[in-house]
Amino acid sequence: MSETNSKKFMVFGLTGAGKSTFAAALWHLVDSREVPGIALEKGLHSGNFNYLEKISKRWCDGWRLERTKTEEVEDVRINLRHGATATEFSLEFKDIAGESLENAFLTRYCDPEFVELVKEADGMLLFVSADYKIDDVTILDFKEAMGDDEDDDEPTDAAEDEDEEEKDDEDEPAGDLEKPAMVAEDAQAAPTPTDPQFDHAKTPLQVRLVDLLQSLRLDPFRKMPFRVAVIVSAWDLAEETSPGEWLTRRMPLLDQFLRGGEVADVVRVYGVSAQGGRYPKKKKENKNDERRQEIIKKRPASTRIRVVGHGAGEHDLTHPVRWLSGMEAVDRLER
Predict the structure, then answer these.
(1) What pLDDT digit, counting tens, does each position of 63-93 carry?
(2) What does pTM read for this prediction?
(3) Number of CB atoms found within 10 A of residue 73's CB
(4) Are 132 and 238 in contact (CB under 8 A)?
(5) Would you say 9 and 125 are in contact if contact means Cβ atoms under 8 Å apart?
């Protein structure tokens, strides 16, 4: 594949977003050609792609992929080819572990190679997971939990009386108020040992994602808006009927940011279940695990994949990539 003539699509997502599982399933899908009608095929590959072979086999055998370690693999690239037009492009998993992005949020530093990838990218696969515990609370959520209602906002007679008393107190001479003020200042200057330290890991996921995405518009990236395909992984766990509804309800901050056009000029949201269920850890005692046995009964293995949204074929994991590349519209015209 000629890098100068091919398009690059960056894969973006934090730890646990489902990028490795997607890569494993996609590699198996285009390599095995088990599902008819898939418009993309595996492109030319050079170099070492043992990692892709390893995770693809593990996925095929029905074992949970272990969390990717940054030192185990740095970069993963999957080259794809659109057979009808001979168009070539690549998926760039620059940070398949997601740890580099986590560190970038904390340190405000990223690898120069990542900066170049962002500048060269023609689109983005943005990963979030439906296996996501809500880690943020809105003012409305807090109010509902406290049992407040609209009537609580209305001042009562007692409250008005208290306001009058406070006003009367303000009119009285201040007296010796300097000492309490100094105590308050001292207390503010020296926090007690029980004051919590900032922990970036507790920052809500949506906030981290939006912060990192927003940074792409700033130096040193200066990225112009491009196509973004949001992949909601572990879709089999979602309660919503459509991926777009899931994003609106579960991650409203991210949804509104993406639709604001600052980073994405066009957005699509797909639901993807790349496994078809929960895989157990690879242990001897899990060999006959009922869930695993039920999943691996599905043959060929590519039929475990489920893709939802925008007319994608049930097992066509390449559909979001075809849309990013513009080939989906070409295929539609040729039908």
Answers:
(1) 888 765 555 555 789 999 999 999 999 999 9
(2) 0.81
(3) 18
(4) no
(5) yes
